[in-house]
């Protein structure tokens, strides 16, 4: 019976684990007879305190070995080092137990030594956290069947600060999160149940993340209520066994309610922050620190009182300094009411203008946290020039794991290559090697601190991020924060082996989809450094390039009917190119030296400007890239389908649904963007694809009963600019026509609009046979920002494959409206084999 109890969870675990909740820590059973089975038969964790990271490491090793190898391994917390044991602990504890250990001189805080010799394994950290990281690394090797016996090495992190920034709101929502509700808050308060927080900390610790800011940078002062401060203590307790420290975002105006002021130079305000900080440290003695978004996008800050941003940051720095805490101060400060009429105004200049004059004025425990590019997590940006401009200030890079502007985990984009391009970029400060990764590690300007802040958007969904494939981004974020010299493909391979197993076809396929994913998305969204071209005023999801121009937000394209692009040159433009160190400034200022993929970021050019790399015109490149990107997204579906039976059914189907959705929505992107720029420029596509859809029947051209035409806004979000909607919001409508195409086998695709707050039902009949029925309920499954309109966010495709069709067959689509959703339809395509349209 004992045995059964021990084995059952293992057996169940295999089945239950495939909902994604274990992420890459699912510890799948190894194939029989593999060399990893030669692991020691005892574990010694050199700390008996149940909540200590070293004890956690012992438990994790036990759990992992049982699950991977089906082997029950004893865990003790002391005693003689058995020659065949895994010993895990700090160097000090090891020395106390067994006498002095050698070879650990180079071991730094959070680093680990991993040594495997003659059937024994020694895992040591300078601190407890390091020992835990070493245990996770060893388990990763066992899970990948790649333990090297007879080796010993040290791995140290490149930076002390490796944090996530969770944008969780206290009402339980997650800003820019696509994987469900908050794990930390519900109804204005910290949750009572901290199980998920602990599970999340486990995932993060396994890739070396040591701090979590648990609430949105758009922070609420009610976080500091007595009840919530108690709650912070609870969350910190849950994450501490994994060596993950809790931190919080602050609302700068928090003291205003009691003091009537939040002036950082008012001693009353200073004392208020010192007091509340002391209160928090009573509950969370190891709090990591504060994150502050001030004077940005409507948030309060020191500028209200004509104080500098450094005055503001230092006030918090003084409060946390006695407790060893740090302040992450966001550089994302800009005016969102700048003048579009003014050719030289430029939001991309704001951060440098605010922060460069303050270089050296921040306290030592302040880190200025800088987004990777000067605007806002676009599909392509140059590295922020601010990284090179602060020589006497510690800096961190902010990376968005949650792809706010890159498909919101309904499109899959593997982000490590994008991050690597920024991290490896050499800004040439003082004409010397100045790679971004060496600046934020503190190495380049000899700063004591530095770090990484990643915004995951994790939620209560069992998948954490809403998509299984997206977890490669969270994994890669942690790995790169530890060591930015790792390669994107190597990281991905480790993740794939852990997440989906080591079948070569699985590895190759996931590698291929992942490495093509960013180029594909860039191709069908915004090219040549023009930005993502999503709707910046609404959902940040679907296409709407017009939303970017003619407003105060400064995410401009400056797209006219003859020319396009931001002139950021020094002589004629906004001068932004001159914000970079001289060698880089010279490159970006010169259109002949600027890389094509940033052409429109730095230069305003005619649509007929030719690219250096391909000799295409800008407009023809837009057309070609959008067709190529969307074509690439179609192949991801077939590639994913080739994994059927090679990975578990649940995750296979979950991801297939998303890849299929992406393939359809990539066509919405393609058609929208090409149509929009064709309408502006009136320059024909050399290949005659744009606006030319021979396989489509427009819904508005069908015989309508209970349906009417509807002009879609923006116009380019509908084929032929027009869709149909039911005339009533209760009664079904039909659209009918005859198949005008030759008899044969077709994939039949229907484009419709899937709005928030309504689940319309559809039926497609051809020749009086029902080809398909479906519901407009994707808003319940996909998790991207919702929309109430017929637009580029709601435009959706469903495809029925391999349908035998006779010329002259009656085609009938019946749409039953529901809620605010009037069963909207755009067109139906009859696609012969090999055609995508
Ligand atoms: C064991 O862990 C606890 C909790 O982290 C810590 O306070 C204690 O110092 C550790 N003991 C040793 C011997 O490392
Ligand atoms: C196994 O580990 C070695 C050394 O760390 C590494 O070079 C190799 O790529 C790993 N192989 C697999 C299959 O993970
Ligand atoms: C802060 O939280 C309180 C209580 O939940 C809520 O009433 C208030 O609207 C929130 N304020 C902001 C700015 O979100
Ligand atoms: C706490 O949350 C976990 C994970 O969501 C759940 O399995 C468990 O049942 C919850 N516990 C309680 C007491 O509600
Ligand atoms: C500060 O409080 C005053 C009233 O005392 C109020 O008018 C003002 O809006 C508050 N400012 C902020 C940023 O909360
Ligand atoms: C310090 O903060 C606590 C908790 O908010 C509060 O109860 C107390 O009155 C404050 N003390 C002072 C001197 O402001
Ligand atoms: C800040 O300075 C401006 C002009 O420099 C002035 O008009 C304003 O009243 C000042 N505000 C405060 C709060 O001191
Ligand atoms: C245009 O913007 C620049 C840069 O912000 C500013 O220096 C200049 O005064 C502005 N010109 C006008 C006419 O407002
Ligand atoms: C381009 O725009 C200008 C000004 O908006 C307008 O005068 C001109 O007619 C347009 N040209 C074309 C070809 O549409
Ligand atoms: C600025 O404009 C002038 C005149 O159009 C042009 O000759 C020059 O090349 C431009 N300079 C830059 C850096 O774009
Ligand atoms: C680029 O294309 C244009 C138009 O076809 C042609 O005149 C020109 O020679 C081409 N340039 C290069 C370098 O191929
Ligand atoms: C959450 O996960 C479940 C199970 O994987 C899935 O059915 C659901 O669609 C997910 N929700 C979101 C928003 O991704």
TrEMBL record:
<protein>
    <recommendedName>
        <fullName>Alpha-glucuronidase</fullName>
        <ecNumber>3.2.1.139</ecNumber>
    </recommendedName>
</protein>
<dbReference type="InterPro" id="IPR005154">
    <property type="entry name" value="Glyco_hydro_67_aGlcAse_N"/>
</dbReference>
<dbReference type="InterPro" id="IPR011100">
    <property type="entry name" value="Glyco_hydro_67_cat"/>
</dbReference>
<keyword id="KW-0624">Polysaccharide degradation</keyword>
<dbReference type="GO" id="GO:0046559">
    <property type="term" value="F:alpha-glucuronidase activity"/>
</dbReference>
<dbReference type="GO" id="GO:0045493">
    <property type="term" value="P:xylan catabolic process"/>
</dbReference>
<keyword id="KW-0326">Glycosidase</keyword>
<dbReference type="GO" id="GO:0005576">
    <property type="term" value="C:extracellular region"/>
</dbReference>
<comment type="function">
    <text>Alpha-glucuronidase involved in the hydrolysis of xylan, a major structural heterogeneous polysaccharide found in plant biomass representing the second most abundant polysaccharide in the biosphere, after cellulose. Releases 4-O-methylglucuronic acid from xylan.</text>
</comment>
<feature type="domain" description="Glycosyl hydrolase family 67 C-terminal">
    <location>
        <begin position="466"/>
        <end position="689"/>
    </location>
</feature>
<dbReference type="InterPro" id="IPR037054">
    <property type="entry name" value="A-glucoronidase_C_sf"/>
</dbReference>
<dbReference type="InterPro" id="IPR029018">
    <property type="entry name" value="Hex-like_dom2"/>
</dbReference>
<keyword id="KW-0378">Hydrolase</keyword>
<keyword id="KW-0964">Secreted</keyword>
<dbReference type="Pfam" id="PF07488">
    <property type="entry name" value="Glyco_hydro_67M"/>
</dbReference>
<dbReference type="InterPro" id="IPR017853">
    <property type="entry name" value="GH"/>
</dbReference>
<comment type="similarity">
    <text>Belongs to the glycosyl hydrolase 67 family.</text>
</comment>
<dbReference type="Pfam" id="PF03648">
    <property type="entry name" value="Glyco_hydro_67N"/>
</dbReference>
<dbReference type="Pfam" id="PF07477">
    <property type="entry name" value="Glyco_hydro_67C"/>
</dbReference>
<dbReference type="InterPro" id="IPR011395">
    <property type="entry name" value="Glyco_hydro_67_aGlcAse"/>
</dbReference>
<dbReference type="InterPro" id="IPR011099">
    <property type="entry name" value="Glyco_hydro_67_C"/>
</dbReference>
<keyword id="KW-0732">Signal</keyword>
<feature type="active site" description="Proton acceptor">
    <location>
        <position position="376"/>
    </location>
</feature>
<feature type="active site" description="Proton acceptor">
    <location>
        <position position="404"/>
    </location>
</feature>
<keyword id="KW-0858">Xylan degradation</keyword>
<feature type="active site" description="Proton donor">
    <location>
        <position position="297"/>
    </location>
</feature>
<keyword id="KW-0119">Carbohydrate metabolism</keyword>
<feature type="domain" description="Glycosyl hydrolase family 67 catalytic">
    <location>
        <begin position="143"/>
        <end position="464"/>
    </location>
</feature>
<feature type="domain" description="Alpha glucuronidase N-terminal">
    <location>
        <begin position="23"/>
        <end position="138"/>
    </location>
</feature>
<feature type="signal peptide">
    <location>
        <begin position="1"/>
        <end position="17"/>
    </location>
</feature>
